[in-house]
């Protein structure tokens, strides 16, 4: 407390004494910032206003930029080009942007290798030599050191925007099927090859979306898709998902419709997978991103019926494994933090379940490998891993190399070695080999990143949100950083869909830390860090809790002198883009910079695009009730931009091929901000062309994006040169 009072006293003296050197420097800085702002004044493209008005429960709501939802129109295309021209003209004037790009390129340029996995006679792994746009799949003959390229996605397209989405092998490893994404779209093609010769065996399957690829022996595989919608395939609504079986050597038009073709089986999300013993087909059916029905079919019996395991959407439930006629099921049914139960496959209903790994106070995420179940628990968003046998006996707790996130541990039943990765915000990912019989871990692949983790530290704090809830946040920065309120800080959050933000290393964030930045991640309600109750506390008419948690995190960082509002940026993507949009419109005074990425920003219409209606568990919809409509209207970012308000400098980012969260959300938000925002802070949108929601983005584009984001952020915090200079 003494230090805080002294710091305040000094600042008061400086402010009251214009003769002081510090004061003259402040005046000079202010003058530079004024000149800087003047030289970077933005003239926005004109955005036409339409006269569309919607009526919700007798309330009329204007939607002047409805025309921007048409992603196929020449007018929208021209608008995108005009916005990008203005945005890139602004970004190119930032004096240190090239330095950031150079350092990001240097940091990215090291060999990265995944954990290996065995299929048939080969050991496979993914590798990137440093700056390749896409990871390459390599393999070695078992017990051989000679590696060969199996699949090189960098050859799929000239610009690197066609990516490998999924790769699976038949039971004996002799056949492989892989899916590709073109331009970042969620629509996929599936290609089948002979794994030995790498030759294509048949025409690709097309128009596949939100799908796994699950082999049934060597005969064929299951996959999921929607009927191709009328209108734009990038934005038209898709709400009846179907599971198909493809028999090798037959045309796709002959594929068997397994589930989802009737009104009774109509669901937005349907998936099917075969258990490792090849005995059961497991089918999951859901209408939202939380809660699913579950069915099984015995593949060993001809014309076996579809058996219902769970017939409601009140819980998340999946089959973890099948062995000797028993099903091992992972669920949060009657167990908000998760449990593993075992049941006879002949009578798999809930009444017959018995706990194998009971629920604990920590959230459970189990995997199987080498004949064991590995239970990863989240303890305040940090990993703890325990090993169990199939009778539910705890064998040991795995000794992890530190405090952070561990992932992996999965493998075939006969695997002699399992692999897992370990990382945290300042430690690049290292892969470890685990002996499942002894529990001993050895380093398998150490990171080659040019980043000295020993110079940085992470601190977990718990702060108080508006309603008194304690919320965890991990703050990472260079050792020796003075907490004097002057540090450029990015506060990141998500807060939705039961997604947990656990510590992980990012090359981009490493560059931010090197530049003298502070990186803070808040584990907001709506996420999965503390189980179903924590998730539900940030959904529907409790969604404001998420925004309050984020605002409280920002206030904590300012109150504890990590930063100041002049040096604070907020960032989030997808549902996190909504988070940024809502908090910057609710508290525009609290941040210098806002960075909403691929955000859900029009809360009255999100459910009318692609599979957006499936997000209703978290958000509710404007059609649900008058109360739900009004609640959404009260925080919807597109509808809460006010005339003349000074909003933070904003860089909205999206992709023109994003068919998960359609770019119209970002387009309309940018148009509202450009039309109404007061002050000099720019309100810009950066639209990546031939790109989607993020997965599979080429490395070259990723480096460019982060160079722009960090350059924009620092420049609009008032920096003329990089902070570490």
Automatic annotation (TrEMBL):
Family matches, as PROSITE patterns: PRO_ENDOPEP_SER (PS00708), PROKAR_LIPOPROTEIN (PS51257)
Catalytic activity as recorded in UniProt: Hydrolysis of Pro-|-Xaa >> Ala-|-Xaa in oligopeptides
Domain Peptidase S9 prolyl oligopeptidase catalytic, chain residue ranges per copy: 503-718
Keyword entries, A-Z: Hydrolase, Protease, Serine protease, Signal
Family affiliation: Belongs to the peptidase S9A family.
E.C. code: 3.4.21.26
Region (Disordered): 20-42
A Pfam family per the record: Peptidase_S9
Peptidase S9A N-terminal domain span: 45-446
PANTHER family named in the record: PROLYL ENDOPEPTIDASE
UniProt signal peptide: 1-21
Bias (Polar residues): 20-39
Protein name: prolyl oligopeptidase
Gene3D superfamilies xrefs: alpha/beta hydrolase, Prolyl oligopeptidase, N-terminal domain
KW Transport (keyword) present: no
Entry superkingdom: Bacteria
SUPFAM superfamilies xrefs: alpha/beta-Hydrolases, Peptidase/esterase 'gauge' domain
